Automatic annotation (TrEMBL):
One of its GO terms (molecular function) is flavin adenine dinucleotide binding. It catalyses: a 2,3-saturated acyl-CoA + A = a 2,3-dehydroacyl-CoA + AH2. This is Acyl-CoA dehydrogenase. Its cofactor is FAD. It holds the Pfam family Acyl-CoA_dh_M. SUPFAM superfamilies: Acyl-CoA dehydrogenase C-terminal domain-like, Acyl-CoA dehydrogenase NM domain-like. Belongs to the acyl-CoA dehydrogenase family. Keywords: FAD, Flavoprotein, Oxidoreductase. Residues 613-635 are annotated as: Disordered. Residues 164-260 form the Acyl-CoA oxidase/dehydrogenase middle domain. The keyword Metal-binding does not apply. It comes from Streptomyces armeniacus.
Amino acid sequence: MTVTEREAREVAEAAREQDWRKPSFAKELFLGRFRLDLIHPHPEPEPESVRRGEDFLAKLRVFVETQIDGARIEREARIPDEVINGLKELGALGMKVGTEYGGLGLSQVYYNKALALVSSANPAVGALLSAHQSIGVPQPLKLFGTEEQKNAFLPRCARTDISAFLLTEPDVGSDPARLATSAVPDGDDYVLDGVKLWTTNGVVADLLVVMARVPRSEGHKGGITAFVVEGDSPGITVENRNEFLGLRGLENGVTRFHRVRVPAANRIGPEGAGLKIALTTLNTGRLSLPATCVGAGKWCLKVAREWTEARVQWGRPVAEHEAVGAKMSFIAATTFALEAVLDLSSQMADEDRNDIRIEAALAKLYGSEKGWLMVDELVQIRGGRGFETAASLAARGEKGVPAEQALRDMRINRIFEGSTEIMHLLIAREAVDAHLSVAGDLIAPEASLADKRKAAFAAGGFYARWLPKLVAGPGQRPGSYAEFDRLAPHLRYVERTARKLARSTFYAMSRWQGKMETKQGFLGRIVDIGAELFAMSAACVRAEQIRRTGDHERGRSAHQLADAFCRQARIRVDELFGRLWTNTDEPDRSVVRGILNGSYTWLEEGVIDSSSEGPWIADATPGPSRRENVHRPIR
């Protein structure tokens, strides 16, 4: 499909949740308002939720320790059927499914703890459970399904059936306006035709959530629409099981639909609501990914500690050498902060008092970026052993530490469920929503003069109230946040810096106006600053919560970790502010123009391209499959 940039933006904008009916800590932070009252005291889970969660974690730990052989999954590139069946029997498929439908009804907090535990044994198993419950059939039905749909499908998802989410196509990634899979109304059915790419769980799935475009016609609004589809429906062919750099056990494939009939009763929500359903589902669904990153950070810390105690160089354990010790401090402090971000966001999701769309997106962005850095630092700490496979280490008589596998497995998280670049733009759009709400027409080039006058009046009132509040605040008073003891200076820094961030954003909007959306480098840095401030806030609140539980030693060490993290984060924030206005964005754009017009092809000389022949993007023309069906239901 050929879609203009404006049309693509309109589709994305229409899929957004337009209203803010609940408070949002992160939204306020980007507006320069440090609403500590929204996260402190740290929200606490219900005792019954804790009891059920801990009971399940205890059972899950036994299963993970005795039944999941991560080395075997890596070696065979497949999760054994008996492992998946064991997870079914344990109820792990229904962690997020309500008890009224046969699920465990775990909170988001304990669901994430379970994913971190499972992923530490093998991330592919964690990805299977996450794709099934976070974005597969259970979550969209929980939010948007009818009672009939819930009764029909949720009990199956809780115990027996694996689900998958199908949105991406060979030529459609983060631009869903070009979605080509069609769902044509035909009586009481829809007829699906098209090809879906990177269908996690698609190779083994029993149920699918499929996004397809319904053509506009009499009686049909049309638009991108969500459907629950039986995985063994006639006309569905899994044409390929894809293989990747990491997550070798991932059951991810290419799925073709050819004249697949789907009952209208299986449509989720109204026609045209598919993207909104997908984005709303991801508001909490994205929290599963930082859960695996937290698990990886904990594992990295354990391995680094044990290895650097055993490894002696120049008469001292390597951890005592500053160059290595700095890496370990980063891993420990960042793991603490990531868990703080995850637990805070998850508990807020459970309480449903706050709108966490920005918090969840920040958790995904920050977790995937910092998780990758932590694993990379572990490989560096391990040196040559970090580059060597666990099997090779074991074969020559050493502990088989799969650090290189962890690096390969972790890399996808910067792409999964919204790449870092897309997350920057998504969060930036939400962060400036208040400005666009009052001044959008003022900076929109296509707006009429009357609309611009109206917007100018509204913007004048908003900024007259808002701008003076960015001048001074509690962060400039030495005694503010004194109850946080040694962490108080960091919270004062967050408050001051949030106001500075808001001023910088306002200045950029005034300077670039409608061109602001093209300044992706600037927007990315704005978002990264906000992510650091959110993580600092979460770390301080989490440390104070631990101290107030009465465990003096753990509280002291939590404050120490939070202090170290905040000091590291403040350096990163100051660097990001410097790069807001002093950067290479403009020369970079010039170089890109030169690359695209062929000015530098001489630089490519002297190498051999070992890529195989073939098109850059596979043909996805609708029609019958000519490939063997590799769909593999778990028996």
